[in-house]
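Hi everyone,

Forwarding the result from last night's run.
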Amino acid sequence: MLQSLTSSLPGSNKMYSSVNIDIFVVSDGEVSYDKSCFAPGIDRTDVDAVSKNTTDYISLTHNVLVFLRNNSIILIDAGNGKTNSGEGGHLISNLKAIGIEPDMVTDVVLTHAHPDHLGGLIDSNRQLAFPNASILISQEEYDFWQSDTPDFSKSKNTPQVLIDVQKNIQQMLVVIKDRLQFFHGTDLLFDFLQPIPAMGHTPGHYMFIVNTGNEKFVHMGDICHEELMLFNKPEWGTVFDIDFDLAVTMRVAVLNGFAASKELVFGYHMPWPGFGKVVKNRTGLKWEAKGSFEE
């Protein structure tokens, strides 16, 4: 069984070891998001009651999985990169704390291309943050953001915000273009990562089954962004969802599937260190955090 160890920076890194692979969870930090990004169109009193939070913001963690396997160092997602708030962008410093320099990273696999997953690939000088890494993204995701006519009509965000997000993503894709590789459907990556299409949040959003040989769990990407509101009311959704209705359908199906299977799940935005299970209660579903694989 994998054993849980904390590093010299508690809350920044967490490590699980097995015969075949070492897995670190490395924090990119927490970022405050305006609560209006969640449950668009829902009465704010109801939102406050379900989220158990009467402030105007919701703080989201950004948990990055790091795999050490033979001579490879593989990341799933890359964090925010430099942010104006200074709340995110701690991935590289936390990688260095466990002895991983940026030029040692061999591969970065993206769940999707939103800036809080893509931005960490670029440093403050607009250069590659991981200069030797291949960057894997689904073909669907790349094609959507590079399109001259992306369909934003099914989102509950404003058109101008979405256009600005696309421009930001396109600028980052230009920087990383020579390092890009595309994966398709469920083709196995690195012999232990199984992509699972989970469209709706973005047109090329993927989850990943992680199978190390000894342990198995699912990285659910951005199926859920926080552990209260979207588990209790998965239909409420977010303005980040490019296809709002499809994202709701996908979220409901995935979460109910996790609850039925009782499998271990990892969430990019779930409370540190990101592992847990989805369980049913009297009112619906809830996130049950797990501090290690053995719980």
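The two ends are 11 Å apart (CA to CA).

Cheers,
N.
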